């Protein structure tokens, strides 16, 4: 994979001309593209390090450096996404645009059960009417609200969560361990790190659970709720990552042995 990343960077370095990158042409060149030293200068890294990266050596490229490379090389959205995919990094500028959110909403609307989509920091990007009926204290936000509804904020900052979720203490403990496993090496991303700091300051329970360093897989399973209008519910959670956006998760709460119903308005 490192060789694929190096080959991709080198190919695009050789395609972009100095004038497009904001540099003078500077005499005769073997190739019309940027020299390795010029790309290194524009990205504020050493030429040696860039050489190793292009050669496929075992050097780590941070998300911020990849973003600089993508900007200097003037990569398209698809090329930028491919660059971050090869490096197994998350683009710090990646977010669901309005155009992306429309198919997400259509997808969850087509599911005849509570369904929602979470991003890297577990903000809800789309949800259907059944999810809104179940999680009214979480998902009932204005479309122009400054913050997206976040599952961890709901769990640790909302009194409604403690009344809705059966065995809240056990679920809260597991949720924090699942979140740590889910974010993995991306805990340093600004949005994720900011959320962790906010919850640690605002919730002693979250801070205590976070310091335990527990990690469990987010595999789904039985979820039990005590809904104020629908009574006791037992649902089976299924979580899937989206093919083109591995940082997004589709969560569905499917019927379990105990029947339940929702009324769409």
TrEMBL record:
Name of the protein described by the UniProt record: Helix-turn-helix transcriptional regulator
Annotated HTH cro/C1-type domain residues: 8-80
CDD domains: HTH_XRE
Domain of life according to the entry: Bacteria
